[in-house]
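Input.
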Amino acid sequence: MSLWSRIRNVFREDRLNREIEEEFEAHIAEAIEQGRNPEGARRALGAVVRQRQQSHDVRVVGWLDSLRADVIFGWRQLKRNKVTSAAAILSLALAIGACAAAFRLIDALLLRPLPVAHPERLYVLSRQGMGFDNKPGTWDSWAYPDFQLMRAAAKGQAELIALSYANRSDVTYKTDEEMEKANLQYVSGGMFSTFEIEPALGRLFSENDDRNPGAAPFAVLSYDYWSRQFGRDPHVIGRTLHIDDGVYEIIGVSEKKFTGTEPGTIIDIFLPVMMHRSVTRPDSTPFRALVVLNPGVAVEPFREKLAAVSHAFEVNRLSGETGLSQETLKNVLNNRVLMEPAPTGASAMQRDYRDALAALGGLVLMVLLIACANVANLMTAQATARAREMALRVSIGAGRWRLVRMVLVQSTLLAFLAAASGALFAWWSAPFVVSMINPPDNPARLVLPADWRILGFGVGLTLVVVLLFGLLPALRASSVRPVCVLKGGDDPHSRQRLMHGMTALQVAFCFLVLFVAGLFVATFQRLSNKPTGFATDRILLLETTSRPAQSSLYWDQVAEGLREVPGVERVSQAAFPLLKGSNWNDSISINGGPPSVNLAYFLNISPGWLETMKIPLIDGRDFREMDTYPDAAIVNETFARMFLKDGHPIGRIFDKATDNGKRQHMRVIGVVRDAYYSGLHGPILPVAYVPFHEVGAKGEMLPESDGTFIVRTASSNPLALASTLRQQVSRARSGFHVSNVETQLEINQAQTIRERLLATLAFFFGAVALLLSGVGLYGVLNYSVQQREREIGIRMALGAQIAHVVREVTGGISVAVTTGVFAGLVCGLGVTRYIQSLLYQVRATDIVMLAVPCSIILAVACMAAVPALLRAIHVDPSTMLRAD
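Output.
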């Protein structure tokens, strides 16, 4: 009989048994025809059962048939204990689903290689050292002239690709009514050919598009954007679109699989790098540099070669720089060029969320271990209840491996049912988590496919889970001693020690999860409630562009038109909103001295802006209509304290160093309270507010192309006026267009997106861990009472007090809980050091928070103990003695 036929017979048992029965009957009928009597014929064939089994074994694959029987038996066991099986499946499903969701996020952002040729040879160039603000850091931004020199030096050894940072910008197709936001990226012409990306339509950029600045006004759409915006219309080729002041012709659509090199952002439109406004500036660094190394080229010598080229460029660029201090120049020139592997690409989201995702992975892993310990205790209890069954199986010849396999098959069924449910949870939860990290004006987009990588992780995780919660109970069940068990003399305390050990692990991990969750929640609350120094209520921000750039006097006309809208209380102007992440900084000089080591930060504002933002003026006056930049300045307390160093800053003169080495003289006319400038995570910065109106060297009013109108509304919901104000801007003056509308509150909340994500998920997993631990504690106590009911009955019959019975029942579990709490305490102190980058201003008082999870765990342990203790103290001694 062929192997395939034997495999098929395993799964058609009824038909196989009928065939064997028919074959036996045929042999008997043949013997009767030959003259033998029926009884003699049957005796000649031997024992019927044995013959049927032998025939069955010949026709099937033995180990596979045995496995099928174990699966059927395991399924019956799960159906027999529906409630406990459902509880185990639910807890494991939650843990497995959380792990799978975390892996989907980590894989999409940090692990999945880009869909390009040879991603293993892809590197990103960056610099490490001291920045122009004399603070340590790592930067992957480069000036294009510097990039060109490095690309020329790398010829024959590697291909260098320049890419701008993804920028969400306004795109217009015909009229302003068709304007929308899209993610733009300027890329080297040779990027697509180097990555071996094929066009889905039209053509892609080539090296010919890299020859001259401004000479290649072309655009390539991503397949995703082409599908969303144009419905895959093949006639999109040749259409034009407007970006800033430029008109671009659409020449192609990129391959479907390629969405850019920045995980977390899907690029909509690719533009030639030569069309970037800063492509010729040696002092502007808007580009990231990727390296595709040729086979056989050593990384370190190549890095040193590029570092030498870049250092020579910086020396030449900064040699005549007079706007920086000597200390700053020395620090910047000592920066080290790094060349790091980037098979997954490079993005700000990777940098910002790498540690957060690692912490999330640690939390879900601990929840998984808690669930596994919980189910392991359940399996141990079930194995104890089946001890006599196991003893009988051993007595009739079952080997230890056979028993181990039988229990492991049941555990595997449990795990795969949980994995199937967990897959649904992971499918929903991963996109949900991504939606939680979406800033209002720049939503994150991660590619979250369900491919073989996710499937392989899920299967591997399920098998690991089986080993974690199933192997130890299986080994304990298979080590049964038939004589001892059948006589009723098996020692229950050894199994209780195993269950108590599992309980201690549960408590330790639960303590750790709750402690970390407490730190994340405290960080989020501290940042959310942190005083910003300005008001956020009823503030609406209209980020506006003017094409072409128009005089600031026309901006005043638009502001006046906004003031006429009913429901508007105040309107002011600024170059950009506070806490938006934008900044404008330079060194300053006091009394003609050398440039300062510390940088000062600047913001253009209109008269009345301080009142609109409710930033108190503590000395001097506000700007007036005749004040212009550069001339007057209003400084904050930190600026006055750091640079002016006296108690009378009004009237003081300071110089602002400019990029061309010239100095702009400014006179302090006012001092205001400190307010956060670009972010909440750092310290208060020294800020000088300067007039919104800027004049040139000849006193002419300079035009402005970008700015923000700050509107304070009478309504508590400022967004109710958003549509009206947007239309009013366009009506007030032609060429003005609102590119983005948001509230100041939304910007402030965007500062804590990562902290909110961690606090929410940590709180959720803390609750899950607490629930699982409570269920586990109840299960162990209940099992302990059940196993000792006879002993308790005898003790109470002999006069034992209830307090003594309670101590006997809870003694072991109390030791386990205390041990777990102590272990969790030690781990919590150690973990704090590794998650320090995710915490904000963790103080010694925060360690007191260790008492909180400790108290919660003890409270849960007490609540879990109540039902079991009630059962113990209500044991009827007479019933137990009669049962004996």
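The radius of gyration is 37 Å.
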